[in-house]
Amino acid sequence: MSVARRLLGRRAFSSLLRPTVYAQFVAGENESEISQSMEKMSLLGLRPMLAVPIEEDLGESTGEKKYDDNMEAMLECVQISHSNTWSRDPMMQLKVTALLSPELCVKLTTLIAQQPYDLNLLVRAMDGEQINFPGLDESDLAHFLCSLRRLNQIAEASVNKVRVLVDAEYTYMNPALSLVTMAMMKKFNKDGAWIWNTYQCYLKESRSPLLEALRLSETEGFCLGVKLVRGAYMDKERKLAEKQGRPDPVHKCWEDTNDSYNGSLDVMLEDISKNPESSRIIVATHNEESVRRAAKRMEELGIANDGGSVCFGQLLGMCDHVSLTLAKEGYAVYKSVPYGSVDDTLPYLMRRAQENQTVLQGIRKERDLLKKELFRRLTLRGGRS
């Protein structure tokens, strides 16, 4: 897509994408267009999870003014999410790297691996206190404090209105993202799950952070919100690991990722069945087997379809048959709905194209396995005749 944009130019590329890929995966550019899309979804029993697709990677940091502008965009997302007739227990997505530089996220990840930061210090910093964090120079400290206050402002605006789901990003910065997210949970999730964290089950080490989050929420006394996904950065994670000569952090095959996802799903559903007020989960997947597994376990554990503890999520423009079937059965179903211009949403659209390829590869793999099993059974039957 980026090559096509360079060849065609911005205007021609935008004209080409708007009625095609953009229209399928993006709700629109302004509140009027978004509302039209959301009203159609609401009539089908689906709920909104709006997303401002702003993020940064290493080398893209843009300065405090841009981060403040991004915060205003997030605050507008809070307002749009809860102030319309189609809003029912709305959610929204947030990327920390839209508010805190990736370079500092990487540095924080290294620092907290050596000496973990106390969540109470982050909460105090969110409240405006001038806290000194070990390992940060004057410039990094100033930026970190500004970023924590930006996150605090968004969380304050959303409490009792919109549930904020913080996205996971890359392994080299995720520990820092989880750190600030858990601090937000400690401050704002005393009476419910308003801030949620994301756990990427395509990672070999995904279970440990989830179990640690459950432990921490219990000891610190806050409600844990979990968005459980497979993950959307697989190709880059693998290439980077190969380039740096370190082990691949991603599960080696589709089946291992499925096992990882289903195992973490079981952990969360068991916890919810025992402590219904202590944690929440959105089963964010397009995998029908995982969806069926979740529905079956909910029934076995006595978790109500519409009780609020468990909901389901899919992307706008993907797996609508799964979303609509779940909604018809009375489950709470959210569609992740990005909005913005073609330029703003291009990185998101590129990942969707990549993800569709991965999904198709998985479907083909499942089809091939079914063919092999069918052939094996026919061969056995023929041998017995």
From TrEMBL:
The gene is prodh2. One of its GO terms (molecular function) is proline dehydrogenase activity. Keywords: FAD, Flavoprotein, Oxidoreductase, Proline metabolism. The keyword Membrane does not apply. Belongs to the proline oxidase family. Its cofactor is FAD. It holds the Pfam family Pro_dh. This is Proline dehydrogenase. The keyword Flavoprotein applies. It catalyses: trans-4-hydroxy-L-proline + a quinone = (3R,5S)-1-pyrroline-3-hydroxy-5-carboxylate + a quinol + H(+); L-proline + a quinone = (S)-1-pyrroline-5-carboxylate + a quinol + H(+). It comes from Gymnodraco acuticeps (Antarctic dragonfish).
